[in-house]
Amino acid sequence: MDPLSFRDCAAWRAEGLPFSTSSNEACKLYDAILTQYVKWRNIDSIGGIEGCITRIKEADPDFVMGHVMSTGLELLGTATTPRLNQRLASAVKKTVELAGSQNLTPREKLHVKGLELLSHGNLPRASDVWEDILVDHPTDLLALKFAHDSYFYMGAQTQIRDSVARVLPHWKPHTPLSSYLKGLYSFGLLETHFYDQAEKVGMEALALVPDDAWSVHSVAHVYEMTAEVDKGLKFMEAREKDWQVSDMLATHNYWHWALYFIEKGQYEAALQIFDSQVIKHCKTKGSMLDLVDASSLLSRLEMEGVFVKDRYRDLLQVALPHTDDHVTLFNDLHILMVSLGAKETGASKRLLEGLQELAKTPGDNYHHKLAEPIGVPMCQALMEYDEGNYDQTVELLYPLRYSVVQIGGSDAQRDVFNQLLIHAALKSENKRHQRLGRCLLVEREATKPNSPLTDRLMQRAVALHH
């Protein structure tokens, strides 16, 4: 990638997105970071995202949007929180102070406001601010991506789709990075169950940019949700060379590949992906996405009766340092799966108690507000299941099944909780729970026909009645 091709001050101004810096170098580095963020890929020749962040602060230490970008990305990575991380809290404070001492454009001021709200965990208000920016500046890709990620963390499926739909007509084929909007849109269509359209738009994106890993991921979701397992396996294999280069999303795409194998009951193949790809990247990079994927795979395999305790112990070293983070409920539940799977009772207890504590004074934090009604009972359900108290698990999870979406993640990721409820119902001594388990399987079959996993569970349910 040619560093000269990144946009300087004049190029951003020409696009109607002026910045209050006179440093062309800073503007180009902003573009470079944005490009890598959208592609889910660190470009080594320009130093990756970290290298570019270091350089943008050298090019213009007072460039507010450079700070908004770097601090915003760290917050949205969800691997740390200003509540516990003094350096991150200071970075937010510094950005706000810098903004107060400069003559910023209205757009830049809104970005600072959005960052501040994000740092308090106030995802709904932060998203509103980014949407305000997009009304006047529909090609502000940072606002679009920050909103997209925040909606994802809230499970705001319709918003994920509509946020992109609203700005699409303003993007022209020659606008830099325009093809990546198709992948974003495809994902929104998918999460609102427009599977055919999601596949079509995702494939259009890949025709333009074959190594667009987010679009690959969106199409992979379609085959997961429609149980077109063989199609999915073929698709992932045929394109592996293209999406492998995307270091931030490759592990997640391998996760999707492994899900197809679990669906088919080919556990060895799924374990091989876990051992050769997922756990390896988890330990080297330690990103939260990799951690939740690893945890989710082990949990699904364990429910299917595969012995994975050693692998849980292996994963524990990555999960343990995040026990007190409580950035999102989705993360919390996956961290808890690991400590339960590794039989690390102290950590499990500590995670639950920490969440109960935050639930008392949630402030504006979206996830902490949901801790009492949703997060805590879900954590308790996982713990009861682990203890073999299946009746209790059903009693805790069943009333929440239509609220779980609010913890964030995708339909495919949250499916682990649907599976847990079904397994608990079938394992419960309570006859009514067993009947409920059958009802849930009939419902599952209706939305996802031809699923081998559903068929296997159905056979187990039928056996209970004989």
Folded structure, characterized:
This protein is mainly α and about 475 residues long. Among the domains are: about 1-170, Serine Threonine Protein Phosphatase 5, Tetratricopeptide repeat (Alpha Horseshoe), CATH 1.25.40; about 180-245, Serine Threonine Protein Phosphatase 5, Tetratricopeptide repeat (Alpha Horseshoe). About 70% of the residues lie in helices and about 0% in strands. It has 25 helices and no strands. It has helices at about 10-15, 25-40, 50-60, 65-75, 85-100, 105-120, 125-135, 140-155, 155-165, 180-190, 195-210, 215-225, 230-245, 250-265, 265-285, 290-305, 310-320, 330-340, 345-360, 365-370, 370-385, 390-395, 410-425, 430-445, 450-465. α11 runs antiparallel to α12 and α14 packs parallel to α16 (about 290-305). The chain is globular, with a radius of gyration of 22 Å. About 55% of the residues are buried. The model has no long low-confidence stretch (mean pLDDT about 95).
Quick structural summary:
By secondary structure, the chain is an all-alpha fold. It is 72% helix and 0% strand. The chain contains 25 helices and no strands.
Strand segment count: 0
Largest sheet composition:
none
Content-based structural category: mainly alpha
Mean pLDDT comes to 96
- Quaternary state of this entry equals single chain
Strand content: under 5%
> Tell me, what is the CATH class of the domain at 1-168?
Mainly Alpha
For the termini, the CA-CA separation is 64 Å
CA-based gyration radius: 22 Å
What is the CATH architecture term of the domain at 1-168? Alpha Horseshoe
The backbone outline, from C-alpha atoms, is globular
Q: Number of helix segments?
A: 25
What is the H/E string? HHHHHHHHHHHHHHHHHHHHHHHHH
Briefly note the CATH topology name of the domain at 1-168: Serine Threonine Protein Phosphatase 5, Tetratricopeptide repeat
